[in-house]
Design a protein that fits this description.
There is one protein chain. The chain has about 260 residues and is an alpha/beta fold. The chain folds into 2 domains: about 150 residues, Ribonuclease Inhibitor (Leucine-rich repeat, LRR (right-handed beta-alpha superhelix)); about 60 residues, no CATH class. The protein has 10 helices and 9 strands. Strand 6, helix 7 and strand 7 form a beta-alpha-beta unit. The longest helix is centred in the first third of the chain and has 21 residues.
Length: about 260
């Protein structure tokens, strides 16, 4: 009887292993799905297996169901997620809480983000930058932000946070809480980590000459990190963009975006 029981247990283990293997994510297919949905996705560091994604181009079309379809399968591999102005809410917490390697999360302008939402997201072990500008997050999430293990910067301008809440956040050493009082707050809204900018050549290709390096690190149209292979010359300067669609938008009304490039 013991032999039969042991054999049955072994068979069950094999079946479980087989089931897990069948549920493995097809990375190529998932990346194709993201790109087909016009989500900008890239691997910022070629030596890393982690990804960056920016959904700003299609933000209004992404609700909880669409977000789960697009982002949940790669939850364990997100480093930077820009979900600004999407329509996600509480239903997206289940997969967001699995993003344990996530370092930067942009939820700017998401109406579904409130204090309870932030309290759960703040527990992510590596989350260092959190953009909550224009959300319903307020003083009710201050305790959670203070307790966030890795948080270094949080943007709360035009949110529900009051001066008293911001003052409490300022008491934590090493945490910068921007409530919109500084002149550069708007620029900080989309400030990426410098190392996320894709200025590295694809594997096997030579580095770009200095004359072909864009003057900007943020796309003037979307605010996403620049892909140095997508550029246009404007007023004698090489301007970089994040995707193939943004140059067309820029060229249609360049004056609208020149402010994001700075003075020559």
């Amino acid at each position: 009887m013991r032999c039969i029981a042991a054999g049955a247990l072994a068979a069950l283990c094999v079946a479980c292993a087989s089931t897990k293997g069948a549920a493995a994510v097809d990375h190529a297919a998932q990346l194709d799905l993201l790109r087909a949905a016009l989500v900008h996705v890239e691997r910022p560091d070629p030596a890393s297996a982690l990804y960056l994604a920016d959904a700003s181009a299609v933000a209004s079309s992404i609700d909880d169901a669409q977000a789960e379809r697009l982002f949940a399968p790669l939850a364990a591999e997100w480093l930077d997620l820009s979900l600004a102005r999407t329509r996600i809410g509480t239903a997206s917490l289940a997969w967001l809480e699995r993003c344990e390697k996530l370092e930067r999360l942009d939820l700017r302008g998401c109406d579904g983000v409130d204090d309870a939402f932030v309290a759960r997201i703040a527990r992510l072990p590596h989350l260092s930058e959190l953009v909550l500008a224009g959300t319903r997050a307020g003083d009710g999430c201050v305790d959670a932000l203070l307790a966030a293990p890795s948080l270094r910067r949080v943007w709360l301008w035009k949110s529900g946070a009051t001066g008293a809440g911001l003052a409490r956040l300022a008491t934590r050493a090493g945490l910068l809480a921007d409530g919109g009082s500084k002149p550069d707050s708007i620029a900080a809204e989309v400030e990426p980590k410098p190392e996320f900018v894709n200025l590295l050549p694809p594997p096997g290709e030579s580095p770009l000459p200095a004359t072909q390096v864009p003057i900007n690190v943020d796309c003037p149209v979307s605010g996403a990190p620049v892909d140095a292979r997508r550029t246009r010359v404007h007023q004698g300067r090489l301007v970089g963009f994040c995707c193939e669609n943004c140059p067309k938008t820029f060229e249609a009304d360049p004056k609208k975006y020149e402010g994001a490039l700075g003075k020559p």
